[in-house]
Amino acid sequence: MGSVRKASAWLGLVDDSGDERYYDEEYTDYAEGPVPSDAWVTDPRVRVAADAAQETGRRIATVTPDGFRDARGIGELFRDGVPVIVNLSAMEPSDAKRVVDFAAGLTFGLRGDIERVANRVFLLTPADYTVVSGESAGRASDGFFNQS
Fold it and tell me: How many CB atoms lie within 10 A of CB 32?
């Protein structure tokens, strides 16, 4: 088939069903036989990440509270030893201040740490967690990128 005829067939201007030379006559349908019973069995060594993380205690919770009444959920997660990321961007400023005060008291009482990650986003970490910042200890604070 020439290039003009191929383009015309692709656009639907001519009927290309008469040209059978490009079809493979040895085509076999693979769905004819029975499907083996172990065709879709998952490897038993593969586990869902959430299940594995829960078993080993490596979980991080993210909470976006609507109001101060959601502070209890934050406290329960933190009390269970789960680091919590609290996003307060959807809250009224007065309620957000109350949640931050609650979180500060919670982390103080359970010997954890609270850190501001972004504007109105806080990370609450239990006592046995260490937050590693992206800043390297040996780098000077007034390096190449600080050109103010």
Answer: 6
Order of strands, sheet of 121-125, starting from the edge strand that comes earlier in the sequence:
61-63, 84-87, 121-125, 113-118
CA distance from start to end of the chain: 66
Burial of 74 (0-12, 13-18, 19+ CB in 10 A): buried
Tell which residue, 62, 123, 120, has the closest CA to residue 92: 120
Indicate the pTM of the whole model: 0.54
Report pLDDT for 10. 72
Q: Read off the pLDDT of residues 13-64 as tens digits, 9 standing for 90 and up.
A: 777 665 555 555 555 555 555 555 555 554 454 445 455 555 556 788 999 9
Q: Are 83 and 125 in contact (CB under 8 A)?
A: yes
Residue 85 has pLDDT above 80, yes or no: yes
Residue indicated by tokens 């007034």:
142
